[in-house]
Structure formats: structure tokens, C-alpha cells
Design goal:
The protein is an all-alpha fold. The protein has a domain of 235 residues. It has twelve helices and two strands, in the order ααααααααααββαα. A hairpin with a 3-residue loop joins strand 1 and strand 2. The chain is globular. The C terminus is likely disordered.
Amino acid sequence: MGPEDLLLLVLMTALTIYALFGGADFGAGVWEFTSAGQSTEKERRHIYKAIGPVWEANHVWLIFVLVILMNGFPLAFAALSRALWVPLLLAMVGIVFRGASYAFRYYSRGSRTELKTWEALFAIASTATPFFLGASGGAIASGTLPIDANGAFRGDFLTGWMTPLAIFTGFYEVGLCAYLAAIFLAREAAAIDDPELAPLWRRRALSTGLWMGLLSASGLVVVWLEAPGLHAGFMSRGWPLVALSLLGGIGSLVELGRSNYLRASLAAATAVTAVVWGWGVAQYPLLVPPSIDKDMAKAPDNVLWMMLLVSTIGAGLLLPSLAYLFILFKSSQALEEVESTTRLKGGGESASHSTA
């Protein structure tokens, strides 16, 4: 195994973490979008408290993926930047507007109309961003991007990425984010024994999980029809991960039915992880199918080894900090929620917003 393979493992790990934690954060906004702003203030407060500590920190994983791709596999990065600049730009715009609307919504002291405007912008941006990120991944996976071995893009810059698999994957990613968010929000509501929110998010997670099961089965058909190269990779190398994803999805629904939210969260995370790695394994060694593989795209070995060294040092600094942030915030959040619920039951004033 050469340094390029090790770096690809690091890249896939970062991509998986972003899909899990970033996906759950996006999913919170997706639920705001699907409810058309009709969710109660209590529901919104629960959402914002859940994503409060790490909702922007999660994007460090996306930046990490882009930096690895740019420095470790520059030919692939250049080719994808030319072919997918439209969906990636739209995803970036969504990330920016999502962050701005979250901040302005939280600190807004204006009219109710202004507040609703920021909530609507947050919901739209949270839904559009995973759609365009998913569509970008689907366009790569389809293997139909007209990119030659030199990284030149010969297609239409505006519509060349709009393959059937790309559009399907965009919607699939939105649904996946909503499913993760519903499970995590149900778990957090159960942790504070909220008799209203826990059953609500449990029902939403179950219904979304059933839809995602249908979409997953449909996705295999779409891959078979639209991406024969990827389908062959699934059949020869990626089928264990497809099976693991199926088992994880079923397991998450079973545990939701039992109201075991921790196991449901772990099973859902397993399913999503298997989806991400299944794609990578099935497509390997191609980075930009059908023309560019890892050996063509990789940087010199000394650059790859340096990237691995820097990544190792960075992980040693970053991971403990993020873990401490999760532990610290979730502990204080649980205490605050219990106190707020107690005041509400006792006829006191409504719970105040927590600081992000």
C-alpha cells in the first residue's frame, strides 16, 4: 500500500465524518424546510440547541477533504473544479447563507416577519446544500462526466453535471440528512425525558427511514441503469458494504421501534458509513471515472508523505478538542433542558434560548 492509498483512506474517513455529523446538522434545517416553517417554537429551540456547539465546526471536515484532494491529487481536483463548479458553488453559497441566517435568526430582535425570513433562509440553505453536494458526488459516480486524461472538461459547464444519477443522489442525500437528524434529535429528546418531543422525532425518524429504504433500493436500480462501471464495482468488491448498509438501515428501524435511540443512532451511522465507503470501494482505483485514477492524479511521493504527517498531527490536535466540545456542551445542555422543563411544569416563565 503506497502513500496515495493511505491518503485516500484519510480522505474517506474525513468524508465519512462530514457525512455523519454535517449531514445531521443539515438535516435539522431540512426538517424546518419540510414543515414549511410550521414547527413550534419548542421544536425549533430543540433543533438549535442540538446543533449549536458544532454546526459550523463540522465544515472543517469538508475543508480537510478539499485540501487533501487539492494537494494530494491535484489533477483530480482540477478536473472536478472545472466540471462541477456550478453545483459546488451553489453548495458553498448555501453554506454561507445557512451560517448567516442561523446567526441573524438567533440574535434577531426585529419583527416576527424578520424572524420568519431568517428561519426560511436557514431552511432553504440547509436543504439546498446537501442536495448540491450529493449531486456532485452522483455526477462523479456516474462516470459520464466528459473529462479526459489531462483533466480537461469537454462538456457543458452549466448542465454537464446533471446526470440522472446526480439528481437522484442529490435527493437521496437530503433524505439521508433528514433521517440522521430525526434519530439524533429523538435521542436527545429522550435523554431529557421530554414526553412531547421524543415521540414526535421518533415518528419522524421511522417514517423517513422507511422512505430511505425505498430510495436505497431504487438507487441500486439507478446505478445499474446509469453507471455500469460503478455497478460492476459494487458486484465485485462493494457488495459486503451494500449488505452492511442494508443491515444498518433495518437495525436502526428496529431499534427505533424499541425506542432504543442510542442503538438506533449507531445503526444509522453504520448504514451511512457503509454507503460512503461502498461508493469508494466500488469506484477504486478511479478518482474521476472513467479517465483519471489515483496513480495518474497523485502528487509526488514526498508531498503525499508530508500530507500524511500533517494530517496525523492535525488529527491529534483536532479530535480531542472536538470530543471535549461534544462532552462539555451536551452535559450542560441536558442540565439546562431539565431546568427549563421543570420551570415550565411549575408554571414559571418559558425557557430562554441557550447561547450557541
